[in-house]
From TrEMBL, chains A, B:
Belongs to the methyltransferase superfamily. LaeA methyltransferase family. It comes from Verticillium nonalfalfae. SUPFAM superfamilies: S-adenosyl-L-methionine-dependent methyltransferases. GO terms for molecular function: methyltransferase activity. Residues 39-137 form the Methyltransferase domain. It comes from the Eukaryota. InterPro entries: Methyltransf_25 (IPR041698), SAM-dependent_MTases_sf (IPR029063). This is Methyltransferase domain-containing protein. Pfam families: Methyltransf_25 (PF13649). The lineage of its organism: Eukaryota, Fungi, Dikarya, Ascomycota, Pezizomycotina.
Length: 273, 273
């Protein structure tokens, strides 16, 4: 996964990750959590969701894993004093998780699958998540299905969304975000259709401030010095097209009618006894 | 509007409307409602949302308007006994509402704007909604922005979504649902950008039963005897393409990995004092 995590860990990337909380990004699993649950947060990044989980399982514990030592250091340093049921550990989902079978009652991921470029990687990842979930437990994923810019005619729907998909699919032109196909992946791994629950959430970027935060974040990632810019170059997107994308971001940020919605597939499966 | 309400009032159409509640379709405005509010529900259909509003404004009242006497009769007969602060009235938004200026504290619509084919109609409609809202009050709209079928390769994204948009835009090929453009419409009518709040909700159709209910509903609407079928024929969609759409619906309904999400733009504007 290290070689596939294409967007890198610049401040422009990780600061957008740090805004995530259990309420913004894990609300769909909260009603299913028991105070004694043992939760695995896969691809925990700076750990804001992980920490939130720890506060709602006072009799349980939470393990956050990520492939980046640097990000894990940030996560560890952000844990509020007195929260002792939270652990962070370096691990690579694709190389196998360092946990026994049936180890967790809830295994959660948010925005991990877009970074797994092939169907084989995505299958291996979900299989590993399922392996460490105990019977009766829950595998839950919140993964982006669409990124839609309005006004609908905004060129960002091609320039940013289209190119992001291309990058995440290692250069394939007609790739797309994985959210919509997550229910199929669950079923392929042996979850019965009636054990799979499919919902959808949204993340909205609107208003002058909201647009500026979101747009400037992508603008910074696409600047020449950012590893995210390099990930675009690697799949053959030209500087000229990158410049057009940044320009379209600026137009969008300045348009009082503009907004963006990221559609999130919220899928969970119950592991059979 | 009567001439523009293209999909007609067959049972296949109105039964899908009757599943709507304030919790499924108006959750985004509920935190803003005061028990003494006077609410107008524009295009109330069978009145399930209207009735829900009435239960949360015990010191206020709710008026539901629609252009169809038949649907209003259903709405009136569905009001629970003892709920006396609810009224239904026939009215046509495009011909002018039979209310004085500044009459309501909340004016709400759900799925009204897709049935207004032109920008002029949509502007006139929102202007009229704003006119009857008192200063300090709220104009709130929940209008579809996208209808997305998964697996993403599903031909329904062209056959059903594409043709629906064509019908709703009176035959224009590159039309789309109005949700994404609602913030622009609010601003054009004089709401300041910081008086407009933009969010997004979803309606998901998944699981065998959920797919069957949704798919069979559209299948029935597209049967030769339904006014909805006639609305497709009127804009030149061939029987052959309609048959292909119904066939694609059947394939989708039978696919255990398939699901659909309707993305809803949830926009409200505060009318200035």
């Amino acid at each position: 996964m290290s070689t596939n995590y294409t967007q890198g860990y610049s401040k422009a990337t990780t600061s957008s990750h740090a805004a995530r909380t259990i309420h913004s990004d894990a609300a769909f699993v909260l009603p299913l959590i028991d105070p004694a649950d043992r939760i695995l947060d896969v691809g925990c990044g700076p750990g804001t969701i992980t920490t939130g989980f720890a506060t709602i399982v006072p009799q349980g514990e939470v393990v956050g894993i990520d492939i980046s030592d640097e990000v894990l250091a940030t996560a560890r340093s952000s844990v509020p004093a007195g929260l002792s049921n939270i652990f962070f550990q370096r691990a690579n989902l694709l190389e196998g998780l360092p946990f026994l079978d049936d180890n967790f009652s809830v295994v959660f991921s948010s925005q991990v699958f877009p970074h797994l470029a092939t169907a084989e990687m995505r299958t291996a990842a979900l299989k590993e998540m399922r392996r460490v979930t105990r019977p009766g437990g829950l595998v839950a994923t919140r993964e982006v299905a669409e990124m839609l810019f309005y006004p609908r005619a905004s060129s960002l729907n091609e320039l940013l969304t289209g190119n992001m998909n291309k990058v995440l699919r290692a250069g394939q032109k007609d790739g797309w975000f994985p959210g919509g196909e997550m229910p199929a992946l669950f079923r392929q791994l042996g979850f019965k259709p009636d054990e799979i629950n499919v919902g959808a959430g949204t993340t909205v970027h609107s208003g002058e401030e909201g647009r500026r935060a979101f747009g400037a974040g992508y603008g910074a990632r696409l600047s020449r010095s950012d590893p995210y810019y390099e990930s675009w170059k690697r799949v053959g997107i030209s500087d000229e097209e990158i410049d057009r994308t940044v320009e379209a971001l600026n137009v969008w940020m300045g348009d009082p009618d503009a907004w963006c919605v990221v559609l999130q597939a919220e899928v969970w499966g119950r592991v059979r006894h």
